[in-house]
Amino acid sequence: MNPVAIPVTLFIMLGLVAIFRGPIGRAIAQRITAGRRRALTHDPDTAEHQHRAAELDELQRRLAEVEERLDFTERVLSERRQSDRAIEGR
């Protein structure tokens, strides 16, 4: 092994420790912890999620109402056709 390799490696390691203990290291640490906090606090029941769920419920209610109206209209038309056939058959 090269006799200069050990002192150079120690010098580089001390330099990295100094850099990461300073403001650059703190900034990197803050960024890492902020990312973890965002990942941990990601709640699916956010206000937007609740708003979308309420909107979906409203649309489902309206669709059910439209289906009821369609069923009623089909029944009325069917009854009318039957009464028209009964009149024509006389």
Q: Explain this structure to me?
A:
- It is a single chain.
- With 90 residues, the chain is mainly alpha-helical.
- It has 2 domains: 1-42, no CATH class; 44-90.
- It has 3 helices and no strands.
- The relative contact order is 0.04.
- The model has no long low-confidence stretch (mean pLDDT 84).
Topology:
Layout: H1 5-21, H2 23-40, H3 47-88
Please give the share of residues in helix: over 70%
- Amount of beta strand: under 5%
Runs with pLDDT <50, length 5+?
none
Mean pLDDT: 84
Oligomer: single chain
Cα radius of gyration in angstroms: 37 Å
- For the secondary structure, the number of strands is 0
Number of domains: 2
- Sheet with most strands: none
Order of helices and strands: HHH
Distance between the ends: 116 Å
Structural class: mainly alpha
Overall spatial form? rod-shaped
Specify the number of helices.
3
Characteristics:
rod-shaped; mainly alpha; 90 residues; 2 domains; 3 helices
Quickly describe the structure.
This protein has three helices and no strands. The protein is an all-alpha fold. 0% of the residues are buried.
